[in-house]
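Students often ask why we bother encoding 3D structure as a string. The short answer is that it lets us treat folding as translation between two languages. Here is a chain of 220 residues written in the first language.
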Amino acid sequence: MIPVSPDQFTAAVTGRLTLDVPSFVHDPFAGVGDRPADPGDPTINEGPPARPAAVLIPVVARPEATVLLTQRSSDLSNHSGQIAFPGGKIDPDDASPLAAALREAEEEIGLDRRYVRPLGYLAPFLSRTGYLITPVVGLVEPGFELTLNPSEVTDAFEVPLAFLMDPKNHQRQSRELNGQRRYFYAMPFGERYIWGITAGILRNLWERLSDPIEAVSERA
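And here it is in the second language, the structure alphabet:
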């Protein structure tokens, strides 16, 4: 595993990502062909225009950094019961994907934005369900208290960042769906099965940051 402290992670993120909003967030079709998509879906660019959404990747600044994840309610129509980041669709009143991600984190799990230091955007991720999801990485100071919205989230838990940033834990899996073989990443952690969009975004984060994280780790 790559040992990642909060300082090492922050240095890696701020060296590779920015908080400048990508222009294509406002035009879901612009550049979609070059963006990470829901793995293995040949119909990803078909159908109506993608709907903009945002998620927060909350990295908790513990002595050994962790990532705060949620388990979605089984009553939701999309991705019910799955492991996810706090987030949702971008509303017209949201000033930016960051504003949407922070709002959704407050609504879903009660994470007060005062504890979140935004660090940078990852490239948007096009989901099979028709959302263009912009992930924003944020460093979360310990001391926060969570209040889960049971209609959206049934649990919130933390996974060591070092585990998620270790490519040995990135499993390439597949399953048959509607007569087609679909491929995706999975990162099983104990009884938690992290896969699909969440694992794909984490994989994208690792790909974006693996070199600087290793370099900072070697210097520490």
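Translate back mentally: The chain is about 25% helix and 30% strand. Keep this in mind for the problem set.
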